[in-house]
Amino acid sequence: MEISGPRGTRDILPEESYLWQKMENILHQAAQQYGFSEVRLPVFEHTELFERGVGDTTDIVQKEMYTFTDRGERSITLRPEGTAPSVRSFIEHKIFTKAQPTKWYYMGPMFRYDRPQAGRFRQFHQFGIEAFGTSDPDIDAEVMAVMVRIVKTMGISQFQLHLNSVGCPDCRPLYRERLIQYLTPFERDFCGDCKQRFHKNPLRILDCKNPGCQEAVKGHPALSDYLCDRCGQHFEQVKNTLALYGIDYVLNPQLVRGLDYYTKTAFELLLPDLGAQAAVGGGGRYDGLIEECGGPPTPGIGFAIGLERLLTAAQKQNPEAWQASYSPVDVFVVTAENEFAPDACSLLEEIRGSGMKADKDYLSRSLKAQMKFAGKTGARLVIVIGEEEKKKGYFVLRDMKLHEQRQIPADQIIDEIKSILVKPEEEQYAE
Ligand SMILES: [Zn+2]
Ligand SMILES: [Zn+2]
């Protein structure tokens, strides 16, 4: 048997997982500051949900889904994204009958049968938010504000928000026709995918990364010139509210996003230092999606952000805050003699009960070896229990960071280590 994880998966080991917890705390906090509540959804759904909810001309549905038949002969798919499952849940639990809007966020693993490459995995993680039940342009700006707040809180200062409007079912058909007219002379230069897209979904050709296709679309007509009055006004107000929030953006007429059901606002967050995979996240308005999935006509907007890429970007742009230097223990208790093990155990429980992380040796090591092991754990403090000390009722407290050692009366030890370890809140956030 081969002892390695499947291709495209990776383990997040403890040296890294604490960074994930730190990132997840930022994500929970940012979403909640804007009034979004967490929804936890299953990792697999009926295949049909994604065919309808993501769109069957998309790469995700055509090439990348993990689909299998379960023992009950049902076609099941590991979720490739979080919007369609959120929509399914919104409809299934009749959330639309409650006061709107519904503001949800989610995070967790997603699955796509992609060709593994740097920074891309077949099991990867996304955070996303969805706002259902309002077409107010202010919510479009708010959704982007959440995304921007997250990257800023992570210490990422180099980024660009790209913005476009992809119109609506009233104005897009006219543009689509105009685009087909424009693209027809270039049809034979398109990549295989775009030859297929050409009649089904020609807008997708605009964001094809193939050089031949990019060359062909260079002088394409801009959708923004074809927007109907409603879409035009909506777009104006989105831009005005972004300005109120102090959020800079770049208008990008080529930004159409991969999914079929986007309407009006579309946006992407680009990071300069991620190379070929510059987009860390993106989203848009999808006013037709909930109806398409079997619910009542309900507007919606959201975004998703890739967490592997987000963490990588934070580590590059803000290395001090995101370097891996985790110590699982604050206080390590060592004993001069094995017979003091019970004293160590009761002291440990007291320290833990006071909210600090504490541990001891479990391999009957010598005092010297215990000290060495304590150093490896990265514990800030070491407490020594010895014959002499026990008799006189105190502990030796060694501060590994300041390289100093003091005798502390047994009844003051908890207060003493607390005063060293527990920092005021401002300091914790400055870290
Ligand atoms: Zn329109
Ligand atoms: Zn192409």
SSE arrangement:
Elements: H1 14-33, E1 37-38, E2 44-46, H2 47-53, H3 59-64, E3 66-69, E4 75-78, H4 83-92, E5 102-111, E6 123-132, H5 137-153, E7 160-165, H6 172-183, H7 192-200, H8 211-217, H9 229-244, E8 250-251, E9 263-270, E10 279-285, H10 289-292, E11 300-306, H11 307-317, H12 319-322, E12 331-335, H13 341-353, E13 358-360, H14 367-377, E14 381-385, H15 387-392, E15 394-399, E16 404-409, H16 413-421, H17 425-430
Helix pairs in contact: 1-5, 2-4, 5-9
Bound molecules: zinc ion (2 copies).
Description:
By secondary structure, this protein is an alpha+beta fold. The chain folds into 2 domains: 254 residues, Bira Bifunctional Protein, Domain 2 (BirA Bifunctional Protein, domain 2), CATH 3.30.930.10; 100 residues, Anticodon-binding domain (Rossmann fold, 3-Layer(aba) Sandwich), CATH 3.40.50. Helices cover 39% and strands 20% of the residues. The chain contains 17 helices and 16 strands. The strands form 3 sheets. An 8-stranded mixed sheet has the order 1-5-6-11-10-9-7-8. A 5-stranded mixed sheet has the order 13-12-14-15-16, sandwiched between helices. It has a 3-stranded antiparallel sheet with strand order 2-4-3. Strand 9 and strand 10 form a beta hairpin. Helix 1 packs antiparallel against helix 5, helix 2 packs across helix 4 and helix 5 runs parallel beside helix 9. The longest helix is centred in the first third of the chain and has 20 residues. It is elongated. The structure holds zinc ion (2 copies). One zinc ion binds next to helix 9.
